[in-house]
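Crash report, auto-generated. Payload:
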Amino acid sequence: MSKFKKKKDGGTPPISTASLPDIVFMLLFFFMVATVMRENSLKIQNALPVANQVEKLDKKNPVSYIYMGKPSAGYEKFGTEARVQLNDQFANLTEVGAFISAERAALREELIPFLTVALKVDRDANMGIVGDVKQELRKVNALKINYTTGVGDAMTNMK
Amino acid sequence: MAKRSAPEVNAGSMADIAFLLLIFFLVTTTIEKDSGINRKLPPIEELEEDVVIKQRNIFTVLLNGKDQLLVEDELMELKDLRSAAVEFLDNNGDKSCTYCNGAKDPSSSDNPTKAIISLKNERETSYAAYISVQNELVAAYNVLRNRRGYELGSEKGFKDMNFIEMQKNYKDARFVGNKQRLKIVIDSIKLEFPQKLAEVQ
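Recovered output after restart:
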């Protein structure tokens, strides 16, 4: 028995895992910050057109979203024409008025006149359906609308 | 020769590196914000008597089902629409507008407060084309408002600021300057070049 035992050859030392929590927290924070909560799951194609004279949609005031576009893959049974989507489901034009009433009912009374309706319309949709929805909105007196667009050169919309 | 095991890597600074990255991403990430063109729909109550508007004060823009643009009964390319609309709004036919420098053509609009742009589209018009046209018409108003912003701004002590920048500064909490006076300037520009954009169904 020798007092000075030869150091055992341990091969590679184990990698320290002390920093693993840091890395995990970092990722967590990053995704917490960068993630935008999607309010509705879309059942339609929704590639927005672009414009460069845009104003930011003021989130201080209440906003309701109406989506329009062709049913996306998996929902072909709803046809190939552009459809309206309210919340999570396809809707008929007649339901737009009821939708706005429901949105208003959920608001504080003093905010009701400031309700903006954001129309998120697919670039390939035609104006027929948009005009119909606008007419429905006029009927329920929801007159503040916003055509939501991306930011870019408007000339690229028309190919 | 005796084999030596590799020394353990010091992990003490790992947390610092992680925080550095975290702060970097925190600073550089921008959360997407919706933006778009704001419009106001006309109320549905029909006016009792028809308002008579002179033909020369109306600038008709028609977008047909094939996305072709017909401006004042003439075929036009989208890229020419902005300058044509500016020319129409800035015309000053009755010479009452002191801040216009248009052609004063008596067969075109009287002054910017009377000039109306009428946009008509068909059901088959594509939404992308419609937005492009809306964008160009808003741009035409912004061109004139920006020009007026430079003129009025230098008089009222907001030098080298166009209308868009004025609006941005008005909303910016860090803006140093008199916001009330800025608001007055913005409102007066809006009155001088009111956005009169009618949509025909």
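Post-recovery validation: Residues 45 and 51 of chain B are 14 Å apart (CA to CA).
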